[in-house]
Request: fold
Amino acid sequence: MSIETVVVHPLVLLSVVDHYNRIDKVSSQRRVVGILLGSRRKGVLDVSNSFAVPFDEDEKDSDVYFLDHDYLECMYAMFKKVNAKEKIVGWYHTGPKLHSNDIKINEIIKGYCSDSVLVIIDAKPKDLGLPTDAYIAVEEVHDDGTPTTRTFDHVMSEIGAEEAEEVGVEHLLRDIKDTTVGTLSQHLSTQVAALKSLQSKLYDIHQYLEQVTEGTLPVNHPIIYQLQDVFNLLPNLSVPDLMKAFTVKTNDQNLVMYTASIIRAVIALHSL
Reply:
């Protein structure tokens, strides 16, 4: 069964950021590489752990790179003693984008896992949204009859956590969150961040479609089908009944907020 979703746990994100920060202090290396551990069930790849691997490359020549196999095998043997259920499921690097030698490195990792997954984790994200992008290697067939080539196909990724991990993350966030900020302002900030993320995604779609129209990029039918499915899910705002339902829903929500504001003001005056 093919992998449909890659779920990355918070422990992996923390380990990758720590790995990146440690290397960044002592080296000018632009990205770090490591191994992902986890399990697979019904098309969902659960990435629950990871460890760093010594890696170096020549920025001018992508064919020149070093990956310590002995260290990888030694670390995996020790992790296997701690938790035998966690298998090698792929590898990660801090990107922030795909590199030309990623396919070659992925072929090496496939020696330990036949269905190797590459997860790019941006340790210093500049854009809003998830800092993870997952890819699997596929054979690309060309229409002109030329030999097939290996390339990466994007897979949906998300952040997931078990109950124990959620508790640990909440304790970490207590030291980061500003306790003086109210829950309403936090909610509004989250909504603004989500809208900015949506705007950036729509801009990427717009840029891609423009380049396809101009002939700069070839037509990728799976992407076009996916965009068509997205557009089909959009509500038809020309239907009067739907517009009325939206209006009623919005008015009900505003009424609750208005009533709560009045009650809050009355209680504040009463407390004077």
